[in-house]
Amino acid sequence: xxxxxxxxxxxxxxxxxxxxxxxxxxxxxxxxGELIGHIGFGELALWLATQQRPTPQQVRVxxxxxxxxxxxxFTPTAIAARLTLYGAPDAxxxxxxxxxxxxxxxxxxxTEDTGRFLAGVLATVxxxxxxxxxxxxxxxxxxxxxxxxxxxxxxxxxHPVHKTADPRTPVIIAIAEREGLRGPHLRLFEAIGRVxxxxxxxxxxxxxxxxxxxxxxxxxxxxxxxxxVALLARxxxxxxHIAEELRSxxxxxxxxxxxRNAVYRPNASNETTEQR
Length: 276
Fold this sequence. Notes:
Blueprint: E1 2-4, E2 9-11, E3 17-19, E4 24-26, E5 29-30, H1 31-35, H2 41-50, H3 56-69, H4 76-87, H5 92-101, H6 109-123, H7 133-149, H8 168-178, H9 184-200, H10 208-218, H11 223-247, H12 251-261, H13 268-275
Helix pairs in contact: 3-8, 3-10, 3-11, 4-5, 4-11, 4-12, 5-11, 6-9, 6-10, 6-11, 7-9, 8-10, 9-10
């Protein structure tokens, strides 16, 4: 907020959009005359997030990441959306919101966590980035060792389903390479994939959410926005689950199965109280 000194009134500036009786402006352009039908949703979303019109190469990487994160089957986020729709079929927005609220450290949030981790490591060598695979490996080995010593997990390593390799990872890296956007975050992430077993004593795959975070960071998105991109992508998947639920519902069966198989076991303190 700022105050207009001439009029003495508070002002609330925004560069996103505005409208009047006859027009809508978005990002400094006429929405109806210049944007609708001329740009895709992915380009617009990236433009809105960065406040800079993206290059075609950035858009292609961004949209590849969106596609990679749109859905992953019956995850807790999808199940939450379906069950919420069953409980409140008159409020589809509640089902969408329920699914999005489940985006955290185990699902979707890994995109942000990986981006933050990689950015933090790169900040320690700012201005002196590695130039060879050996140097990237050394930086990655140091970072993994420090995380292990601190008792922390390496974000982006491992996957509950893809135990050996996440099929999304090499595809996103290849797209970034083709578009000339395989930058320091991806190179560091790849190096972590090469050396982590030397430190951890076991081999884990670089997961799709992690490589998405690295790729998004390399096209200029700040770490604090990366989870928002993951949620944007998953919104499409949730809409698909909700649409399928309306056509062929499974939520009633999920609810019934849990309800009929629920076992009530009073806790130990209650049992002690009853014995008294």
